[in-house]
From TrEMBL:
Its EC number is 4.1.2.4. Keywords: Cytoplasm, Lyase, Nucleus, Schiff base. This is Deoxyribose-phosphate aldolase. The gene is DERA. It is an enzyme of class 4 (lyase). One of its GO terms (biological process) is deoxyribose phosphate catabolic process. NCBIfam families: deoC. GO terms for molecular function: deoxyribose-phosphate aldolase activity.
Amino acid sequence: MSAHQRGTELDLSWISKIQVNQPAVLRRAEQIQARRPVKKEWQAAWLLKAVTFIDLTTLSGDDTSSNIQRLCYKAKYPIREDLLKALNMHDKGITTAAVCVYPARVCDAVKALKAAGCDIPVASVATGFPAGQTHLKTRLEEIRLAVEDGASEIDVVINRTLVLTGQWEALYDEICQFRKACGEAHLKTILATGELGSLTNVYKASMIAMMAGSDFIKTSTGKETVNATFPVAIVMLRAIRDFFWKTGNKVGFKPAGGIRSAKDSLAWLSLIKEELGDEWLKPELFRIGASTLLTDIERQIYHHVTGRYAAYHDLPMS
């Protein structure tokens, strides 16, 4: 990943002026969803590109070192070798962008990736994931421990209470402390947009997170009832664009939660391309948080190569 996003001073005058036009956002979201997807070899090419944006994730209470090992193997070999050969893409080094795990599993992931001989980064969730309702001191310590264990990206959750009660200064200060605790690791800030109450709050929280030095802003934990949706994404992407125009700083975007089908992933790529342009279509500035998406992408590529759909045992998880 590239150098850190520096952030800016807190500018509350900018925040206070913000008002999101909800009907216009919903119209734009419908437009995106109504698009016809690309077909045949263009689809296969876009799906392989989508693989390189995935933060391959497991965040379950029953995670063990062995399923972390399988996840890491799948991150290094996301698509079956024979399928890649058929597309003449076997020597392009296609891997997922990162693996994403709980802090206690970071050591397992670092060890497994090292054994596999690859340098895919390990991302760790932190700061009282998913609710963010633990003491600040504990949340900061969680970041530091994950970084010590070898995580090079930290996905933090914000305290939603601060957004819902309009405590923008406190939110800015908190994220600045997260940034500091990350040290050299990249900071991805999860807004948990399904719990922020309004699209205007989503825009304001996005802006505060970027001002405080987030390298990425992320829609959701994947544990809320409403996760990554197009209206929320449009608002966050416009905030990223406005922030870039005002400061020259590029901030990445990561939708997460509920992105399960290959068709979904193509719609997300298309949205990024239209809203932010091709320069954002790289793992340094765009990620997709997903656990089951890769399986469906591999199924679609199998179908493109062989003309038939794979049986479950044709594409095991590792």
